[in-house]
Amino acid sequence: MRSLAALSAIAAIQCSATAALAGDAAELNILGFSADGGVFAFEEYGIQDGSGFPYANRFYIDTASDSFLPGTPIRVRLDDESASLDEARNQARTQGEAIIEEAVLAANRGVTAGFNPITELSVEPHRMAVNPRPVFPPIDQPLELRLEEIALEQPANCHDLGTAVGYRLTRLGVSPGETAQLLHEDTSIPASRNCPLGYSFGAVQTFFPDGGEPVYAAVIAVRSVGFEGPNHRWIAVPGKL
């Protein structure tokens, strides 16, 4: 019995050590669009590995120019292990209200046409093909996206951390005879990605504004170097349907 108890204690310690050495994976919360589809917003939040500090980041993207709205992204980190994640999220939400009201985003959330959690092992991480909205039989052209990882020069803050990875995003089947439309291709890697190691599709959010042009946002998980293991953060690329 003592041997069994000892083995159980060792197993518990090993499991605890494994959990303690895991990188942090930010939760994704799609906030929605402006009423005309001109802005897409999402939130990522979690507990930072190593420090244990709660953080919440909000991103507001102009869907026409694929650029951040002035004053964004909003990044909140509470450098206090006793602070709660809700506190960090509430602070980020309050700042975001000055950009676009939360109620407006919630009223125009759109459709999550595709979703791949980072824990999913059975999907193709670099391909996403969706029916843009739940209408059957479909009345919309399918939206098919491909993600490619490309090796690039390391950012200055990533020396000696291995090969840095950028990405190329393309859309297939946009028009007859057109094989692919290039949506984005990295030529360098921004420091904000924290030494990326790889990418995978997380979600596709679509929106059909009243009387306006339909839009979508491809949300991509970025796997990057973390303090205790690989971290996951989120970026998004908007487009017109």
From TrEMBL:
InterPro entries reported in the protein's UniProt record: DUF2259_secreted
UniProt signal peptide: 1-22
UniProt KW keywords: Signal
Protein name, UniProt field: DUF2259 domain-containing protein
Source organism of this protein record: Neoaquamicrobium microcysteis
